[in-house]
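Job type: complex structure
Entries:
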Amino acid sequence: MPTEKSKPVVAFYGLTCCAGCQLEVLNLEEELLEILGHINLVQFRMGSSAKHPGPYDVCFVEGSVTNEAELAHLKELREKSKVLVALGACATTGGVNALRNGRNIEELKQSVYGDASHVRTLPQIQPLKEYVKVDYELQGCPIAGDEFIEFLTALLTGGEPSEKNYAVCVECRLKENICLMKEGELCLGPITRAGCGARCPSVGFPCEGCWGPVPQANVESEINMFSQKGASFDVVVRKFRMFNASMEDFMKQLKKRLDIEWL
Amino acid sequence: MGLLPEKVLNEWVIIMAPRSTTSPLILKKGDITPFIKKLTHILTVYGPVAKKTQFVFDEISEGSQLRLDYDTTILPPKKYFIPPQEEMVRFSLSPQLNITSPLEESEEATLWNGKRFVIVGIHSCDLAAIKFHDKILTQVYPDPYRTHRRERGIIIGLNCLTPCEESFCKSTMTLSSTEGADLMLTELHDSYYVDVLTETGQLVIDYTKSLFSSASKEQSKSVEQLLTSREDTFPDLIPEFEKLPERLQVGYEGEMWARLGNRCFGCGACTLVCPTCFCFDVKDRVELDLNQGSRVRNWDSCQLVDFALVAGGHNFRPTIPSRVRFRIYHKFWIEPEQIQVIGCVGCGRCTRTCPADIDMIELLTDIQEGGT
Ligand code: SF4
Ligand code: SF4
Ligand code: SF4
Ligand code: SF4
Ligand code: SF4
């Protein structure tokens, strides 16, 4: 058994988000005790109010940077951490927070807060890796517990955590789901990174892309397939933007194809 | 390029084996349930079951689950011989490295010790694909794991009497494949006509004997007619199929690959559902106790970006068009070179599953017409 001293110091921090990813870690009830045997968890507000000033061996950061204060915090965490891991869609693609991208931020503030003079916010939401060096990313809204465990064991045994550079369709075929694209629905599975175990198609819902784009995502073909199924521009844009509004390649293709200036 | 179409043909003729070695039998449809029940006492039983609007192979505990009227399944029965995820070895790291392999199992599998399984209702295209694996995974890439499972599997085949959507098994000459099956069923009115093809098949019959009766001469004649009439009812959708390897060799840089590549997602679904594809990737996994672990192989696909990535970061097939082309070349050129059999049995699963609606019959027709 490693001593407290020899165990890596691990912290969790949340920026702007629903804290669902940390909750997902807390939900690993069966494995949590075993995990705690291997790490020195010093900061995890879901489980304890204890605070720790750092430095950290591994720092997990969920959420998006929405204002200058959060940006400063992120930079500070980066400096204090040997390994920084972006946790979940908000941190890896901007997630639903990025829906504001391309909109007039002053109008948005007004419509949400009324008198919005006290609200300080950055106009664009971007993945954490656009601000600081991110060593690893765990995608998803929320992340998948089994991916978290696999990642942690790889890190603890000195291995290189493996990336799933393939689409949700792979996991979906192995589960022998009825393919929703073939049923005429709009599924982002073919251009979305695997890792969720085809969560949505397995219960009959098309993928919304929360794991972010798969490498070499064939966005153009996806737009064509959606159009062939009779989807309107509006529907296609909404579908693509849901979790990926800050993903340049997605938006570039949409702009090119659908002639929308503001994306 | 050494490949002779006749050689390809000859190989398939062997696969289209003659029927019954002993006299054929009759199993009443109503007796399927007791038949399955008896089998479950000594074997794990798999067969086609309904999944919403489609079918999958799954474990059967009740005869009523079995849907012998199925058209095709999402994954082929290869999943029982090469599981999507398979432990090759288990290990523990301390106190000292200890490694065990499932292949080391000492007890021999017999019909009676619960170590064998039976798959009921495999169609001819899938039988041909099993034979294809029997060949390529012994002669070219010997695979002890698959062999281990194959020896434990008993196969009850089922003749197709109507073509299923997207298939082209008449062109691939797999429509009448029966080799590999231990028993072969043909639906005949309210019964199944049963050809006993192997000794193992005979053992199964002996064990469930009371449920079978001998087939009459008329019944044999009816089945004969049913089976030969398929020559007319099944369309030859890709004439001169055996010429494909030759025709592929004319063009490597053709416009066709770019066109398909623009459309394809590189998602790999087509190869995962393909009964002849066998590629896998190997990974070591340590469990949370940081001591136990396993070396696992997972189905892989030449359509995925990391498939041809090698140490140092070079990728032999870095683009989607190059990977689409490779899939076709592997099946229709490389495999015929290796074992004189084309790596496609015409099941149509790739077309049925492709989210980009890439159609195998169209694609192969383009090649036949010199369209690469
Ligand atoms: S349902 Fe979606 S994720 Fe599943 S195979 Fe079809 S396109 Fe891919
Ligand atoms: S199927 Fe798509 S939307 Fe659903 S969890 Fe997976 S990646 Fe996210
Ligand atoms: S290539 Fe397509 S049609 Fe041919 S065997 Fe594979 S899945 Fe079936
Ligand atoms: S087509 Fe691709 S996945 Fe299938 S056997 Fe050939 S190389 Fe492997
Ligand atoms: S299933 Fe279709 S889209 Fe996916 S890799 Fe195969 S051909 Fe390409």
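Summary: Residues 9-156 of chain A form a domain with the Rossmann fold fold (CATH 3.40.50.700). The pocket of iron/sulfur cluster (ligand 5) is lined by residues B 264-270, 303, 353-356, 358 (CB under 6 Å).
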